[in-house]
Specification:
Elements lengths: L8 H5 L7 H15 L9 H21 L2 H6 L1
Helix pairs in contact: 2-3
């Protein structure tokens, strides 16, 4: 899987930089519901590709922000 260059995960998830673990998880779940491939049925190929990219960024954001060691390096 290719890593993205997107670094402002807080902005992408729509949370503040002092968000709690619960807030991070809630934002992650909301974005995944929006962008998950299962939710893209019937959409154009372009919309599906954009959703796939956003799903990837959502996962990277969650993986980074939910890990204290990774969060400190961002």
């Amino acid at each position: 899987m290719n890593k993205t260059i997107f670094t402002d995960y807080y902005a992408f998830l729509g949370i503040s930089q002092n968000a709690s673990t619960e807030e991070i998880h809630k934002a992650y779940k909301g974005k995944m519901k929006l962008y998950h491939p299962d939710m893209q049925v019937g959409k154009s190929e372009e919309e599906q590709k954009m959703a796939q990219k956003n799903c990837q960024i959502t996962q990277e954001a969650y993986d980074t922000l939910s890990n204290e060691n990774k969060k400190m390096t961002k």
